[in-house]
Predict the 3D structure of the following.
Amino acid sequence: MALVEVKVPDIGDFDEVAVIELLVKVGDTVKAEQSLITVESDKASMEIPSSTAGVVKELRVNLGDKVKEGSVVLVVEAAGAAAAPAAAAAAPVAAAAPAPVAAAAPVAAAALSASGPIEIHVPDIGDFKNVAVIEVFVKPGDSIKVEQSLITVESDKASMEIPSSHAGVLKELKVKVGDTVNIGDLLAILEGTVSAAAAPVAAAASAVAAVATAAVAAPTAVAAAVAAVAAPAHAPGAPTLGLPHASPSVRKFARELGVPLEELKGSGHKGRITQDDVQTFTKSVMSGATQTKAQAAKGGASAGGDGAALGLIPWPKVDFAKFGPIERKEMGRIKKISGANLLRNAIMIPAVTNHDDCDITDLEAFRVSTNKENEKSGVKVTMLAFLIKACVAALKKYPEFNSSLDGDALVYKNYWHIGFAADTPNGLMVPVIRDCDKKGVLQISAEMSELAKKARDGKLGPAEMTGATFTISSLGGIGGKYFTPIINAPEVAILGVCKSTMEPVWNGKEFVPRLMLPLSLTWDHRVIDGAAAARFNAYLGQILGDFRRVLL
Ligand code: CAO
């Protein structure tokens, strides 16, 4: 197979244009006409396509390099005979590019002869049929200047702004985002005076179209067209009207992922948004670290989620009223926030739950007698306070349960702050009791009852809900046998507790009635394995079976 040097084609007067994006890397298989790099002059950016299909063997340019006609971009191991036809195919399209510029005259002439309302039409955009409107910059009532960009249209490889050929007040806009347009389509109606500047502007618009046209197949004629453009697409360093500065392929990528480009900060040359920026932003939204403005406006990420980001089929839309009377109530803020967090944690954590029972007969007897002795103190000791103390002992013995994942590292915490799920009229909240290793069961009970009351009254401060290293969710006061609690990220485990019941337990000789507490330990399988989880539960059971072990 032949090695072929892919070179920068004729870019006219534009020598020394900067390489601002590398769109392929060594080892990639590229198709003929696939964009390889983006170059940028002070007036326009364009993607340089490959003339040859094959595998990239060597990249000869780096970001920031200046290239001109004839500069070798990369070396491709050509795929069979495909190279020659692809290169040949590029030429006619490039050759066709200058034609639209000349064809612009009738459009401009028509505009000039208008009186009264002025119609703004799509200028000649060359071979491009049905290009999509991706941005609209103006609205009725706006004062429009000559050359002001009205909309952006985009094909699969290039985007261009369509400027107004006249000045005036915008009376009516005839297109919206998502529409497709062709040459001659009515874009807008202005009211104002016909400007003498109309003709050059119309020519400029056509030249913009020529840039796009040429860039799609081969940029041979691009520079000539760019030179004539007054307001080129995405002029570097000066994004017009808040238009984010990004190449067409990055825009397309962002649109496919539903990423709002205007919310990104570009890390590329002159703040240009790169594909990496879009990917990083997407990951950040998926992990919950970032919210889009739309999510924030809804009061947080959607509690239900729509699954689109995961490529899932849409959530079923059912007209429930068809089947009977209904009542619709918006979810409260806390439910929405906790819902979004639970959804992320359920999706992102490979969680496993171990169920176990432990004998708390003696501990319950001790708890009841302690409460009797302390009746006057007003502090009631609940099973949950003992569980917190027992968990601290187990967390100290198995420190990975008290850790958090940070990239590829585990952060072990030398403090033991325990969160507990509290059921409140507004939804689930998780207050945190700090330094449980340093506190006795009585103090933990007192703090728990105070925090639970604050949670129910909606008076918990942010500091009282953060910093937990492990969480316990107790349904013991309500009922049930086992359940699978969802880990409260970035923690790596959570203990679910249900109602203890008297059960017949075999002691080796006979069945005896024992008070058995059902435990459900959910753990993050990236950090903890099944054997460690079983050991953690067994140790917890031993402590709860004989609480003196806490002292050991
Ligand atoms: N087995 C049997 N009885 C239990 C028990 C258990 N495991 N845990 C508590 N009880 C009993 C208590 O002893 C108490 O009985 P008395 O009134 O006779 O003394 C009664 O149940 C009520 O206890 P409580 O719920 O008031 O106290 P608590 O310390 O157990 O729980 C709190 C406090 C704030 C955790 C609890 O009120 C609560 O909100 N629980 C719901 C948590 C939740 O929703 N979790 C699910 C989240 S989804 O993951």
The pocket of oxidized coenzyme A is lined by residues 382-384, 420-423, 428, 452, 473-477, 485, 497, 499-500, 517 (CB under 6 Å).
